[in-house]
């Protein structure tokens, strides 16, 4: 068994004296782990930083084996973000969140969304907006997407401004009035890609997606939200 693909490094941990077990995410193969010989060496450690792109080649005698992986360096997003605490936090959060996807299952839409976020990391105003949309896509791709198509209470499709914290469905302005203290605000840029998004809109979007990631994905599986994401939220709310 063998494949080769461009991939995003999600995590790398030392294995033995000089090797590393590396988790990558590619468009064609999804999240895959492999043993990189020499991965803990001075030469390869910088390449295997979470957030970097590589060309990975994975080999194993049987498909169910861990397999070995070789990597060639791609764009070093981690090094580019090193001087920007906000961008580095965003990069770390992206990589941490991707580790909730099932192994060896392709998510081409999610990969394409990731590439959009990574490509915008030098635009401080744009990438947080794209990251919030990425979290919406992540929920949808793993089976916990929000229903923002119409009002949960009335069925109308206009003035959708809130989201129910229980159902994950949109609620119109009129229907939400008696329950405003219990509702999440629905930033309009999550409905309309052409809508403007302020810093406050991004924060509200992250509150919304964070709630459903925690309640529908992490807690049911006995897991905690990644600390990297909380660090990002703390930076965005300063």
Descriptive account of the structure:
The protein has 238 residues and is an alpha+beta fold. The chain has two domains: 75 residues, Beta Barrel (OB fold (Dihydrolipoamide Acetyltransferase, E2P)); 117 residues, no CATH class. The chain is built from seven helices and eight strands, in the order βββββααααββαβαα. The strands form two sheets. A five-stranded antiparallel sheet has the order 3-2-1-4-5. Strand 4 and strand 5 form a beta hairpin. The longest helix has 20 residues. It is elongated. The mean pLDDT is 95.
Give descriptors for this structure:
OB fold (Dihydrolipoamide Acetyltransferase, E2P), alpha+beta, 34% helix, 2 domains, 7 helices
Give the CA-based shape: elongated
State the total count of DSSP E strands: 8
First CA to last CA: what distance? 48 Å
Q: So how many helices?
A: 7
How much of the residues is beta strand, in percent? 15-25%
Number of structural domains: 2
Mean pLDDT: 95
Write the layout of secondary structure elements.
Elements: E1 2-15, E2 19-26, E3 30-36, E4 53-59, E5 68-73, H1 77-81, H2 85-98, H3 108-119, H4 127-141, E6 160-163, E7 170-172, H5 173-176, E8 184-185, H6 199-218, H7 227-236
Antiparallel strand pairs: 1-2, 1-4, 2-3, 4-5, 6-7, 6-8
Helix pairs in contact: 2-4, 2-7, 3-4, 4-6
């Amino acid at each position: 068994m063998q494949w080769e693909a461009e991939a995003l490094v999600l995590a790398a941990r030392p294995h033995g004296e000089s090797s590393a077990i590396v988790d990558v995410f590619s468009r064609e193969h999804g999240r895959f782990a492999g043993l990189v010989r020499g991965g803990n060496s001075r030469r390869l450690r910088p390449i295997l930083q979470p957030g970097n792109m590589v060309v990975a080649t994975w080999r194993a005698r049987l498909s169910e084996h861990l397999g070995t992986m070789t990597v060639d360096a791609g764009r070093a997003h981690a090094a580019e973000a090193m001087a920007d605490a906000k961008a580095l936090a965003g990069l770390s959060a992206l990589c941490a969140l991707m580790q909730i996807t099932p192994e060896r299952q392709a998510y081409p839409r999610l990969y394409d969304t990731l590439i959009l976020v990574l490509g915008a990391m030098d635009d401080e105003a744009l990438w947080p907006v794209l990251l919030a949309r990425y979290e919406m896509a992540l929920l949808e791709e793993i089976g916990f997407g929000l229903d923002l198509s119409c009002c949960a209470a009335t069925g109308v499709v206009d003035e959708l401004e809130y989201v129910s914290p229980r159902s994950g469905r949109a609620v119109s302005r009129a229907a939400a009035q008696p329950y405003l203290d219990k509702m999440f605000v629905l930033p309009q840029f999550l409905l309309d890609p052409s809508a403007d998004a302020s810093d406050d809109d991004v924060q509200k979007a992250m509150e919304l997606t964070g709630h459903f990631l925690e309640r529908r994905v992490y807690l049911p599986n006995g897991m905690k939200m990644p600390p990297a994401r909380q660090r990002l939220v703390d930076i965005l709310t300063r």
